[in-house]
Amino acid sequence: MRAIAMIFFLALGLGWSQQHQGHGHGGHGGAPSQGPLTPIQLRLIEGWIRQVPSSLRDTTVYLTVQNPLGRDLRLVGASSPVAEMVMLMEDYRETRSGQTIQGMREVKSFLLPKNGQLVLRPGGKHLMLMGLKRPLKEGERLPIRLIFEGKQEAALELKVERR
Ligand SMILES: [Cu+2]
C-alpha cells in the first residue's frame, strides 16, 4: 500500500511540473494550529512573491529569514489574506531509469536553525499561495504569516515582483 501511495504522489508531482505555476488543488496543507500564537521576531533578509498572469490562481513565495533566537524553529505552515491556503513545497529533480523527473512536492516542515537561516528560492524550497482571491499587482506589499511549531508566528510583508 505504501508503494502505491508513493507512486501516486510521484504522479501528482509530475502533473505539477507540467503546469509549473498552476498547481492543482487537493493538497492537505490546512491550518496547522488554532488559538493564540506567540509572536516571534525574525530578520527578513529578502523575499518576494511572484507575479503571475491573472488567469492563474496559485503563485510562489521566496524568502530568506534569519533566526536570531538561540533555539531551532520549525516552520509548519503559513497563511496570507490573499490566498485560500499556503503550502510548504520543494522542487525536486531525480533520475529514474535514465529519465530525469522534475516536479514539486508538499513538505511537512522546514527547519530554521538557531542563529541560522532558512532560504526559500526558485528551484528549491518555497511557499505556494493556493487559491488567490484576487489578481496580485506588481509592486504591492502583502502580509504573510509564518507559523512555527509550538504555536509561534512571525509576520512578514513581501512585495509582488515580476522576475
Ligand atoms: Cu509549488
UniProtKB/TrEMBL annotation:
This is Copper chaperone PCu(A)C. InterPro entries: LpqE-like, Lxx211020-like, PCuAC_sf. Gene3D superfamilies: PCu(A)C copper chaperone. It comes from Meiothermus hypogaeus.
